[in-house]
Design a protein that fits this description.
Layout (H helix, E strand, L loop, with lengths): L4 H11 L23 E5 L2 E4 L4 E4 L14 H11 L10 H13 L5 E5 L2 H16 L3 E5 L12 E2 L9 E2 L6 H4 L2 E4 L4 H11 L3 E6 L13 H14 L2 E5 L11 H6 L5 E4 L10 E5 L1 H4 L18 H16 L3 H21 L5 E5 L2 E5 L8 H4 L4 H12 L3 E2 L8 E2 L6 H16 L3
Parallel strand pairs: 3-15, 5-8, 5-9, 9-10, 10-11
Antiparallel strand pairs: 1-2, 2-3, 4-12, 6-7, 11-12, 13-14, 14-16
Helix pairs in contact: 2-10, 3-10, 6-7, 11-14, 13-14
Bound molecules: ligand KE4.
Amino acid sequence: MLNLSNSKREYARAKTLMPGGVNSAARAFGAVGGEPIVFERGDGPWLFDIDGNRYLDYIGSWGPMILGHQCPEISAAVHAAVDRGTSFGAPTVAENELAELIVDCVGSVEMVRLVNSGTEATMSAIRVARGYTGRDIVIKFAGNYHGHVDSLLVSAGSAAATLGVPNSPGVTAGTAQDTMICRYNDVQNLEEAFATHGDKIAAVILEPICGNMGCVTPSAEFLNALRSTTHKHGAVLIFDEVMCGFRVALGGAQSIFGIDPDMTTMGKIVGGGLPLGAFAGKKEIMQHVLPAGKVFQAGTLSGNPIATAAGIAMLTSLRENPPYEHLETLAAKLHTGLANAATSAGIEHCINRVGSMMTLFFHPGPVTDWDSAAKCDTEKFSKYFWGLIHRGVYMPCSQFEALFISATHTDQHIQQTIDAAAEVFAGLK
Ligand code: KE4
């Protein structure tokens, strides 16, 4: 029986201090029940909780830990940066170096603005797209999450291709009315939206590889329609690569699909696990950002010396020693192993995967959009999640997330995970 007594004590204390005892809702285990585990440290592919339990980590801080916990290059860079001071609120060379690395790695990007989170990146990108086009409407897709931006915390209205309604208290109808929700992978729906509102649409934002409804990939037809339709109507195409950027390839999803978006938002890996995001894109658009242009954007800690040091170390390592072939080998083994184990146990499932981001859906599939993802057996997922926790494997605490493998996972760790899952599946029927 897993001893979680210290976690329970600290979580009870946390709940008296912070809403729900967490600083991000995703960590609260709301989707799987029970109480979150409180951790003390990470090392390579391992997380250690405050009760001394050890887990193979497949969340990786929700994506950033592609090089594992305590990556030596990143730790050394952060320690060196701290010894030079933690924040200046003034330009530094490190910001030039990180911006240059981003431009070098991400083909469509000509100019960058560093911020402090993925949310800040998408919020700013939306504002820039509206300022650049002089238009109001933004299209997003059901099942896509772009951070807690008011204008993107919106659900579909009464019918598809209608203007949105708030999906959180505190988001005003006035904000939501300029956001339209379409169906992911639905070309006709996208074309309807542009037929109706074309010259009022400032931007289309999407996860080019979804992680926030579980891992869902776009069809080539959908991607081509996104690029051609936004181009035809003068709308800005924004690839939100906060999760898939630098994860599925050094150049992100756009490099795999060969599609050049007008803007790209980044987070997670780009900051090496420190608070850093970026919005970036064509110079013609980015030149509209203050003080070069008139679209306001600012941030006290943007381009922070410690965060940029971590980001530089991360992207330099990914560029000089790309882990992607190793990650693909590990991920393919896990993919096949989980599929075989679930099939042997008679568990209805399907797996979507791109490189080292993957989701096992408790649904026969295919899962291509939110409507199909929402049909998953989330009760079964919760039992799977806790069964693995009790076997020392820490998977994302929601059916509607992607798991991530790090370069520090080994073939043995993958086999250990498959064996644990096989035991859990056997008890799930
Ligand atoms: P942050 O503000 O959390 O750094 O990034 C927001 C964001 C933007 N775009 C995409 C595609 C994202 O996946 C995210 C954040 N992802 C979630 C995990 N699904 C972060 C976990 C959390 O909120 O604690």
